[in-house]
């Protein structure tokens, strides 16, 4: 599929860092500072999506569970790894590329198969320069990559405008690929991009999941250090990761709080990780009702089968040293108070 110089489409069918990496691309973790989900319905010029979550928050488990609903469509590994060309892949090339997928994620034993739902950040990183993924490869610029790629701070206006065009272009391609199903998009960075997504898809609905701040910090730190070890092309100071995570999370949540004021009633749902884990189906039933996602009963049997299949999965335990715990408690005091942790 040729790469257009300026993508234009007249029809759109429609708390941790999380991502799934394959074939040498960074990504992968079971939760992060924030994650996002987006749903879109088809229709000429119709713009509908949804997005959000709090990192280290079990975002991957939630995405996988929501993706069991056959009315939703999430990007698959080839759609995020080949954002310019996945629509034009023949069955011959698709089957061969799928054969090269790794058996599981880089940072945990969660399996990857050709239909496994993925985040869209890798695709965005391959389509334009504003993405925190670029800081994984070049960690001497890690802080700047996160501030620019997530918060759009210190960016040229034309760079942000390009991000918007590429995001719109990618969502359009995903919907063309998915047919009449609603798009399901998850990306931790989208927690700070609610306003941007709402401008692109004005009838978006958003789901935000949060978790114990200590677990968020520990999980996010572990994820970033794993990715840096696997993919960095420069030397780096591991201590810089702690400072980055401590600084960025409050900034992201401040942006989220600013943008959530733009959402009409019924367009945002928030869930607590421990309650979701304790009773995922009841939690999602309430979420479906609150966001108007349609009847929950048709999706429940597939979700039950998925839950049965991951019943023996053991989530990683993240010990946190006293100094780090004190820093998290001090700099993320708002999160402890806001959600009563």
From TrEMBL:
An example molecular function term from Gene Ontology annotations: transferase activity
**Keyword presence, Magnesium:** no
Q: Which domain of life is it from?
A: Bacteria
Keywords, alphabetical = Plasmid, Transferase
Task: Tell whether Signal is among the UniProt keywords.
Answer: no
**Which InterPro entries does the entry mention?**
P-loop_NTPase (IPR027417), Stf3_sulfotransferase (IPR052736)
What is the recorded name of this protein?
Sulfotransferase
Which species is this UniProt entry from? Azospirillum humicireducens
Q: What is the lineage of its organism?
A: Bacteria, Pseudomonadati, Pseudomonadota, Alphaproteobacteria, Rhodospirillales
């Amino acid at each position: 599929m040729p790469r257009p110089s300026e993508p234009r489409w007249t029809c759109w069918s429609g708390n941790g860092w999380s991502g799934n990496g394959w074939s040498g691309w960074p990504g992968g973790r079971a939760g992060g500072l924030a994650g996002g989900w987006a749903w879109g319905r088809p229709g000429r010029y119709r713009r509908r999506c949804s997005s959000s979550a709090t990192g280290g928050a079990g975002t991957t488990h939630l995405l996988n569970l929501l993706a069991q609903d056959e009315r939703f469509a999430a990007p698959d590994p080839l759609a995020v790894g080949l954002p310019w060309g996945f629509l034009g892949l023949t069955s011959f090339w698709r089957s061969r590329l799928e054969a090269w997928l790794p058996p599981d994620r880089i940072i945990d034993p969660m399996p990857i198969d050709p239909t496994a739902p993925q985040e869209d950040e890798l695709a965005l990183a391959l389509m334009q320069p504003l993405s925190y993924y670029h800081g994984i490869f070049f960690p001497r610029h890690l802080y700047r990559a996160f501030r620019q790629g997530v918060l759009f701070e210190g960016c040229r206006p034309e760079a942000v405008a390009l991000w918007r065009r590429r995001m719109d272009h990618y969502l359009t391609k995903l919907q063309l690929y998915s047919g009449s199903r609603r798009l399901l998009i998850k990306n931790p960075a989208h927690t700070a991009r609610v306003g941007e997504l709402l401008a692109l898809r004005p009838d978006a609905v958003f789901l935000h999941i949060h978790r114990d701040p200590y677990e968020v910090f520990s999980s996010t730190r572990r994820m970033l250090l794993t990715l840096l070890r696997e993919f960095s092309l420069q030397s780096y100071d591991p201590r810089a990761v702690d400072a980055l995570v401590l600084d960025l999370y409050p900034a992201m949540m401040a942006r989220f709080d600013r943008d959530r004021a733009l959402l009409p009633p019924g367009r945002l749902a928030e869930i607590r990780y421990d309650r979701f884990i304790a009773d995922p189906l009841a939690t999602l039933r309430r979420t479906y009702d609150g966001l108007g996602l349609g009847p929950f009963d048709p999706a429940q049997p597939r979700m039950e089968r998925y839950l049965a299949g991951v019943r023996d999965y053991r989530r990683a335990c993240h010990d946190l040293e006293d100094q780090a715990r004190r820093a998290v408690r001090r700099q993320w005091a708002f999160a402890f108070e806001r959600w009563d942790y």
